[in-house]
Amino acid sequence: MRLATRAQGDPDGELLVVSADGRRCLAAGARWPNLLAAITRWDAAEPALRALDARLAAGEGAPLDAAELRAPLPRTWQWLDGSAFAVHAQLMQIAFGTQPIESDKPLMYQGMSDCFYGPTEPVPFSDEALGIDFEGEFGVVVDAVPMGTDAAAALPHIRLLVQINDWSLRALAVREKNTGFGFVQAKPACSMAPFAITPDELGAHWRDGRVCLDLGVDWNGRRFGQANGREMAFGFHELVAHAAATRNLVAGTVIGSGTVTNADYARVGSSCITERRAIEMIAGGKPATPFMAFGDRVRMEACLPGGGAPFGAIDQLVTKA
Amino acid sequence: MRLATRAQGDPDGELLVVSADGRRCLAAGARWPNLLAAITRWDAAEPALRALDARLAAGEGAPLDAAELRAPLPRTWQWLDGSAFAVHAQLMQIAFGTQPIESDKPLMYQGMSDCFYGPTEPVPFSDEALGIDFEGEFGVVVDAVPMGTDAAAALPHIRLLVQINDWSLRALAVREKNTGFGFVQAKPACSMAPFAITPDELGAHWRDGRVCLDLGVDWNGRRFGQANGREMAFGFHELVAHAAATRNLVAGTVIGSGTVTNADYARVGSSCITERRAIEMIAGGKPATPFMAFGDRVRMEACLPGGGAPFGAIDQLVTKA
Q1: Residue of A nearest to B108 (CA)
Q2: Which of B127, B246, B254 to mutate to test the interface with A (most CBs of A within 10 A)?
Q3: A258 to chain B nearest CA, in Å?
Q4: Rounded distance, CA B258 to CA B126, Å?
Q5: Most CB contacts within 10 A, which of A259, B13, B227, B316?
Q6: % of chain A at pLDDT higher than 90
Q7: Other C-beta atoms lying within 10 Å of the C-beta of residue A295
Q8: pTM tops 0.80
């Protein structure tokens, strides 16, 4: 089942159920006005939304206007972003000139959750000198997870999967990392692809708590990366358990994978610019690729091997604030 | 003006205006059902709430039942905690055995905002071995602050002041700080004192963006600290500007001072246990004071020099989850 959110003048938008081909929709209605309300009482919401999905499968529904779509969760109570791809962490240490992080536990910070940009909204930044970078990643949306839930028990709390661009300002990141307090200025609002999907939508490509799809990333119309989500050192269920170790996770919490990176990056490319710069540093001593400029576009779309983009695409313009 | 939130079966509770002596209240009513709704449209809400405050001053209102009070903001969209007392940062480096942080900018991390415990709620933790500690601090609540707002322009966005206990799990903090990603497991939900107050309530004790009051902290009935809020290296307006450098701050964002600490800690004591342990390490080579045990209580109350506690008191029991 695919869910989306339509703009209608409210901060949370209007919840839609979308047909498998992404072309038609039915509004979820007054009882489930938005996705945050639905995920808060998912056990009751899911059957109602599945019933609408069945009607869509039978041919009902109105045409979906992609231009009206916002992030499936335009805001939520909590966003915890992991960094679960080990090769990404190694390359970032090279790019940032920082020490290796000794840890047998996931890396995770809390980021801003009061705004997720929609898939085609222009994204404003104040200055190109901030080192504007994209980070293509996957995420999960959980219902309420009690404190102390272990990884096995966390898996069924993963109700929806999402695709995210975690916008990053690299000129501010090293200082913030060196404080030990994590990223505030270096991590403004993220973007989401239009469709939040139930895990069953991916069939065998949702495996071991990982989204095993290639994430195609295009920068100004040129292919930049197509790494696969399967190489996470920790599955999403392990990230959820890590996050829930000392807190109850509120329903609607989004947990991110961190930048999708593969060991075979020479072949598949990267999902963020900083990684490519690190690879250039390894090869030639210094980075060659600049960060983004105003007017640049980035497109991100995860594809099934047989075709089809279950999350839809992020396609955004970087603008001057 | 003092505001409080009464439990009534809803996650956001019911907004109350409270008399200056803290004994009577009037419900804000259906238009301003909770504080998050009011701060979101503060320019419209404030006159309505001030009108109720005038009626309270004239003797109206029902008795306030302190047992019904929750945190003034039981949940909000964003909580950014600073560490603005320079002596606190220095003592924490000694306690944690970490390197000094070189920075001319404030230290700040994003913490969980989907739950603030009320002033007398028991607070559950899974294990005493986590190093259960309190952190007495002050905080501000802002209305919507546009990205790029400077410190001078940030000051009038500070609409309310609050008093916070930032619960901390010290056994988990050093690892998280060393990752550079900030605190997730080490910082579970915080608590708030019962009253959020407008800055004018403090008169001259709200000065240079600082709450210039002694924060009395009692652990199991014995005075532990009474440091004054005036010694922040950065005022709250500077913390707000730091937070807003690259993001719009959503209305209802709470920004914290970090643990209240004074240079004269030998006389005034501390607002968290870890600091006392660092002072013991300086004096005798090793810490002597243990962290909190199940069944312990901590009480925090900021007092005006002439008497009176404008925020009310936090008084909580630590329990086994």
Answers
A1: A181
A2: B246
A3: 12
A4: 24
A5: A259
A6: 93
A7: 10
A8: yes
